[in-house]
Amino acid sequence: MSASPSTPASNSKANVLVADAESKSRASIVMAFKRKGYAVQDASTPQDALACLQTQRPELVILDPQFPHTDAVDLMRRVRAVRRDLAIVILTSQATADNAIAAVKINAVDFLIKPCKPDDLLLVVARALAERAQQTKHQRLLEMVTQAMDALRQTEDAEVAAVLPLPPGMEAVAPSPDIVQIGVLTLDRQKRMAWLRTNPARRIELTEGEVAILVALIEKPNQVLTCNQLARTALGYQDMDKWTVENVVRSAVFRLRQKLEADADAPQLIRTVRGRGYFFSPA
Questions:
Q1: In the chain, ranges of CATH 1.10.10.10 domains
Q2: pTM attached to this predicted model
Q3: Which CATH topology does 159-280 take?
Q4: Which of 74, 158, 211, 248 is at a distance of 20 to 30 A from 120, taking alpha carbons?
Q5: Model confidence pLDDT, tens digit, residues 85-127
Q6: Which residue spans of the chain are classified as CATH 3.40.50.2300?
Q7: Residue 74 near residue 102, CB atoms below 8 Å
């Protein structure tokens, strides 16, 4: 297997630690990665490796855990304990079952046997760093979505409109494209206001995102909509990963239930079909 010459170069300036007791092996790896533009640290002892992880904050470590007077399995665990987000590549001549099992348990990205061609190692590292960058991007996107939702929730609280009496005559509201009536629910999309003809009657203010999700559900009563369908049709999210979509939609549904349902733990309006999605029940 040979690496594409351009693949590792795409990770130039990435910070890599090479931890290996064998000086020749360590020097060879360091040289190969520096030639490809990586920032490289090296460690010849477990103590130096652990210290470097804490002070230099590399994105990835190439680790041969077979140091003199050191338990290899224990060292792998200690490396993972220091940095939960660290990408770890195990490169060793000791392909024991214990080492392989430990590598799996610490979620190493690969387990390579010496001798290993530099191009093969470069390709493994490039792929691992690319995957790590993608995961970081997704995490940051989710954090941005969460922050936006928190801001909407704070705005809603500032408006002090959690539960207010039903205004007189709402049952006979004039027809309007912005007003939807279904079952006990009346929704004014423009004003972001919902009225529940319950006992007692209630008026609830909603956020833009909550209105969008609720409209998508009530426009297709008793029809199950998946998280992906709701994210796409209600919120306009396109080409987002499944994990992010599900978290965004579930968070919005949770808040809607807290506001609309008499008992959010036993919802009657917004129902769940396990493994499929949600539907609105007018009854």
A1: 159-280
A2: 0.47
A3: Arc Repressor Mutant, subunit A (1.10.10)
A4: 74
A5: 888 999 988 878 888 888 888 888 889 888 888 888 898 898 8
A6: 6-133
A7: no
